[in-house]
Amino acid sequence: QVQLVESGGGLVQPGGSLRLPCAASGFTFASSAMRWYRQAPGKERDLVAFISSAGGSTNYADSVKGRFTISRDNAKNTVFLQMNSLKPEDTAVYYCNTRRNGMDYWGKGTMVTVSS
């Protein structure tokens, strides 16, 4: 079955950096587009970044452009979200996502808190 496991979250000061990996299994990772979403307390889950199956195409939410980078290692079935210049408004649970046969699959998420 599809499994997505996020890690790397934690407490970081404003201006700091974090790198979130998401380990995938149970499907053909190298042929699957991947996404990172986030959900802040009391808010809806929003798309943060997208990467195509081969990694040649990426897209970002306007709020993170120039600060976040999505990448993938198809040999290790892992997608990453590099987050730089973090702001308090980036505080959220970050989720890894893939879509297979019209269904969305999610990990359990990893909490990122940006605070001094």
Explain this structure to me?
It is a single chain. Helices cover 0% and strands 53% of the residues. It is mainly beta and 116 residues long. Strand 9 (92-100) and strand 10 form a beta hairpin. It is globular and about 40 Å long. The termini are far apart. 29% of the residues are buried. The model has no long low-confidence stretch (mean pLDDT 97).
Assign a percent range to the helix content. under 10%
Spatial shape = globular
Radius of gyration, rounded?
13 Å
Described by its quaternary structure, the protein is single chain
Number of helices, where a helix is a run of at least 4 consecutive DSSP H or I residues: 0
| Major sheet attributes | 7 strands, mixed
Order of helices and strands: EEEEEEEEEEE
Question: What is the fold's blueprint, element by element?
Answer:
Layout: E1 3-6, E2 10-12, E3 18-25, E4 34-39, E5 45-51, E6 58-60, E7 68-73, E8 78-83, E9 92-100, E10 103-106, E11 110-114
Parallel strand pairs: 2-11
Antiparallel strand pairs: 1-3, 3-8, 4-5, 4-9, 5-6, 7-8, 9-10, 9-11
Tag the structure with descriptive keywords:
116 residues; mainly beta; 4-stranded antiparallel β-sheet; 7-stranded mixed β-sheet
